[in-house]
Design brief:
Layout: H1 3-14, H2 19-36, E1 63-67, E2 73-75, E3 78-80, H3 85-95, E4 101-105, H4 111-123, E5 129-133
């Protein structure tokens, strides 16, 4: 055998034929695609009732405090001091015992102001206090 023939034979032995591996990969891919399309997710379909006469319930009116970026506290269109929050909450809660407290704060509002409003509301025996951050 000549040198050229031996070199050609060694070169063929060094190459790995990837065709069978690619065939297996494509067959597996087809198998997973076909089986995945037949899987049905289980779940419940819920039809929600539509409210045709939705009216706000005055009994569930919230006590809404608005806190500005400069930490001013507003209630019902008037500016109040943080020390008067408890008295205002007690008065409004006496008028509407189901009322909750909502604090609408600007993103730049001080956390200390929000905590003081929350604490004073809880001292006035209103434990349902929510915080809403207003987008600017």
């Amino acid at each position: 055998m000549s040198r050229l023939a031996r070199h050609h034979l060694e070169e063929e032995e060094n190459n790995i034929d990837l065709t069978p591996m690619l065939d297996v990969v494509f067959i597996m891919l087809i198998f997973f695609i076909v089986t995945a399309s037949f899987i049905k997710e289980s779940g419940l379909e819920i039809t929600r009732p539509e409210a045709s006469t939705a009216e706000p319930n005055p009994e569930n009116k919230s006590i809404v405090f608005q806190v500005t970026p400069t930490n001013e506290i507003w209630l019902d269109g008037r500016r109040i001091d943080v020390r008067s929050v408890r008295a205002n909450v007690e008065r409004l809660h006496a008028q509407n015992p189901k009322a909750t407290v909502v604090i609408q704060a600007a993103p730049a509002a001080n956390t200390d102001t929000l905590t003081q409003i929350s604490d004073q509301s809880r001292e006035a025996r209103v434990n349902d206090v929510s915080l809403v951050i207003k987008k600017q």
